[in-house]
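ingest -> validate -> predict -> emit
validate: passed (alphabet ok, no gaps, 284 aa)
predict: started
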Amino acid sequence: MPNIDLHIHTNASDGTLTPSQVVAEAHAAGLAVISITDHDTTAGLQEAVRTARARQIVLVPGVEISATHPAGEAHILGYWVDYEDAAFQEFLSSPLSTRSPRIAEMCKLLDALGLPVDPEEVFREAEEAASVGRPHIARVMLRKGYVTTMDEAFDRFLGEGQPAYVKRFKNTTADTIAMIHASKGVSVIAHPGLIRNPALITSLIREGVMGIEVYCHDHDPEKVRVLAALAEEHGLVVTGGSDYHGKMLEKTFRLGDLRVPYACYSRLEEARERLLAKLSRGSA
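emit:
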């Protein structure tokens, strides 16, 4: 069966490739279905849709939204969201307004640690992105030789609880899931293997999330088995994606390396049809 990838980033957020370049790589890798799921923005989708149509690749418009919950932070994927809807875009933009002041504050903290980073350098690093975030700071730190990998930048300085971390405003997980559904999108828990608190996954299921990302590079075979069983127990759609960000030094895999069953796309389509039917009944 054809290979698919339902979790890919572009330089509209923190990836290194343009949407067109991502689609070209997907085509070269023989992927039949892909989804662009940039962090908290849909700015790259129109270009990706046009390019995918020309390359005869099925592209599922998506987004990965950072959300908060008392049990921790979660990333929620939204597939087939109506990304041109004004209410949806307003929902995405509300946390974005806090990003620039947060970047400036984190740079101040790095300077106090003897690792000067000019905020303007970070904004230049992110000049083609619709949103600026910690990965852009990490790239500047990497270029300056303060760290040897992006992971080190997060583990020692930028991650939650580390000395240069500054909390930012996020929408709640419940509101995020509800907004994705209201925008005709299917909600899916991203890379659940990275969620440290199992109670958070339980809460997301109670809040109505429709699917869970079972296949990804961060999940070993045992984790895949456990998550697949969890999905079956709760009637969740199983999805998969590489979380590809382009040419990253610490990411050794290529687009297309992860094998995701084509059936994941078929089941996702079925979930979308069920959601649309439910929304239609609600408006009748």
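The chain has a mean pLDDT of 92.
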